[in-house]
Write a structure and sequence with these properties.
This protein is of the alpha+beta class and 137 residues long. The protein has 3 helices and 6 strands. Strands 1, 2, 3, 4, 5 and 6 form a 6-stranded antiparallel β-sheet that branches.
Length: 137
């Protein structure tokens, strides 16, 4: 079974109103935390159920936060990013980079081929039945 995937990215601006327990998500990353090959970007690590981010529905785990209220998050430590979030006010505008996977699954091609063959078989069978019994119709 072969499965190849490509990815494309898009940026989205998301406005969230801070709730009683914050914005409703956790972050990971920063210049002092680079688990992914020297990638120091800030990512969403968890969306908290019933928090503002979950209720809004657009922010997803693994989305990259590029900026908060226009302040870029490149080249900041994890703690600096946390402080920027904490001091960002009640209404926060996030600039988010989303990676969208485009799947090219060989199983999908096989399923389509099987469907075409089944339709072709039914068509041939229906044609044979029609030819045999057309005088009786």
């Amino acid at each position: 079974m072969s499965c190849a995937a490509a990815a494309t990215t898009l940026t989205e601006e998301i406005r969230l109103r801070r709730g009683v327990s914050g914005l409703g998500f956790n972050i990971i990353g920063g210049t002092d935390y680079q688990p992914n090959c020297k990638d120091s970007a800030i990512y969403v690590s968890k969306i908290k159920a019933d928090g503002p981010a979950a209720l809004d529905g657009r922010l997803k785990e693994q989305d990259q936060i590029l900026a908060i209220n226009g302040q870029k998050l490149d080249k900041v430590t994890h703690q600096e990013a946390v402080e920027i979030f904490r001091n960002s006010g009640n209404v926060v505008t996030l600039l988010v980079l989303k990676k969208i996977r485009i799947e090219n699954n060989q199983n999908n091609k096989a399923s389509v081929s099987q469907l075409v063959m089944a339709i072709l078989g039914i068509t041939v069978l229906a044609t044979c039945v029609y030819v045999k019994y057309r005088r009786r119709l």
